[in-house]
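Example for tutorial group B:
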């Protein structure tokens, strides 16, 4: 039986490990006992380890057939670099800030297949675009995506399915989009608009820096990714940002130095933390426009996924984690073997991989409705 190591067992890493342990020998590593304890009822080897320590990963993954990176974003690049240096194939969902292609030469030298950013967005949206871009001339791509709690609580009407610091980056990092063939950089939270979604109602969309690899791999003149929140959330985040609560430089307060963003994250975490069993949903709309077989064509993929009460798995963990596990199966089964760094759009270019990924979503009851015009 092939061996998989999952590095990081937060909400998404846990869903990944549980899904894969039905078919593979799965080990997980995390430094938090509470995360490891949540896997006690599953046939998974649990290892307490601080993955930031030198050589910890190297010691862990000696016999791995595949490693899955599910650590927080600030740890992601170095974690991926160490895994690739150990000559291990990898699928990663840490969504680190650094350029993934900086690891491409290392991965090629070590004969490694490394699939990065393989979640829901980035992830499935890239896969969908990669598929259509290979089969038509795409002129426009837009992804609207958000994960939100069903219960709206003042003041933020938001809960974070992953690290609050990683969420805050969406409110501070300038958003790179593609307009008329040129990369345009806009402020985070810019160009807000209200969009109505069936079954959900009005949501607020704003620019975020989510295109990532697509800016380098796709020659499409117009591309944008926008995050969705309940109306009013943007104004609150702008107030916090402009007041300085998201600053990353140290300031002195009563003789002590601290980064405002660290204090903000500590204060927000209790308010943004999803409670066990709390219902939430993931909504995504991918719109692709262009020319196919000499005619104008438009594809719209809509996703609305909800918390799974039976397995007690959050929607964001499902939609992110099961995209990752589907890609892991492609690598483990030698269906996808490209060496080097692969963003998700590379998987989507293959008819076989795309059909497999979409079928895996159906098996997990993650339903993408597709319309074409």
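The residue assignment follows.
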């Amino acid at each position: 039986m092939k061996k998989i190591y999952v590095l990081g067992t937060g909400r998404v890493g846990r869903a990944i490990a549980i899904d894969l342990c039905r078919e593979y020998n799965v080990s997980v590593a995390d430094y938090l006992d509470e995360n490891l304890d949540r896997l006690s009822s599953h046939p998974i080897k649990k290892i307490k380890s601080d993955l930031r320590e030198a050589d910890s990963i190297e010691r862990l993954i000696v016999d791995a057939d595949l490693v899955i990176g599910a650590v927080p974003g600030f740890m992601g690049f170095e974690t991926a670099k160490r895994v690739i240096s150990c000559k291990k194939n990898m699928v990663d969902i840490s969504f680190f800030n650094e350029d993934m292609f900086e690891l491409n030469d290392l991965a090629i030298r070590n004969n490694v297949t490394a699939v990065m950013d393989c979640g829901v967005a980035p992830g499935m949206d890239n896969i969908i675009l990669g598929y259509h871009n290979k089969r038509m001339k795409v002129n426009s791509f837009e992804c609207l995506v958000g994960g939100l709690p069903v219960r709206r609580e003042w003041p933020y009407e938001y809960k974070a399915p992953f690290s609050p610091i990683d969420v805050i980056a969406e409110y501070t990092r300038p958003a790179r989009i593609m307009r008329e063939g040129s990369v345009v950089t806009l402020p985070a939270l810019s160009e807000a608009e209200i969009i109505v979604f069936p079954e959900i109602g009005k949501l607020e969309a704003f620019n975020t820096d989510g295109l990532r690899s697509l800016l380098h791999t796709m020659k499409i003149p117009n591309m944008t990714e926008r995050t969705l929140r309940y109306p009013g959330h943007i104004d609150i985040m702008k107030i916090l940002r402009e007041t300085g609560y998201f600053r990353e430089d140290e300031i002195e307060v009563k003789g002590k130095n601290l980064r405002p963003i660290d204090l903000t994250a500590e204060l927000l975490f209790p308010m943004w933390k999803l409670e066990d069993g709390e219902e939430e949903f993931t909504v995504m709309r991918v719109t692709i426009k262009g020319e196919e077989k000499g005619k104008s064509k438009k594809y719209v993929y809509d996703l609305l996924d909800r918390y799974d009460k039976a397995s007690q798995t959050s929607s964001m963990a499902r939609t992110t984690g099961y995209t990752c596990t589907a890609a892991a199966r492609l690598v483990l089964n030698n269906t996808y073997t490209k060496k080097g760094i692969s963003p998700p759009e590379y998987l989507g270019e293959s008819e076989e991989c795309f059909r497999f990924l979409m079928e895996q979503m159906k098996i997990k009851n993650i339903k993408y409705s597709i319309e074409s015009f």
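The first strand starts at residue 3 and ends at 7. Compare this with the pattern of hydrophobic and polar residues in the output above.
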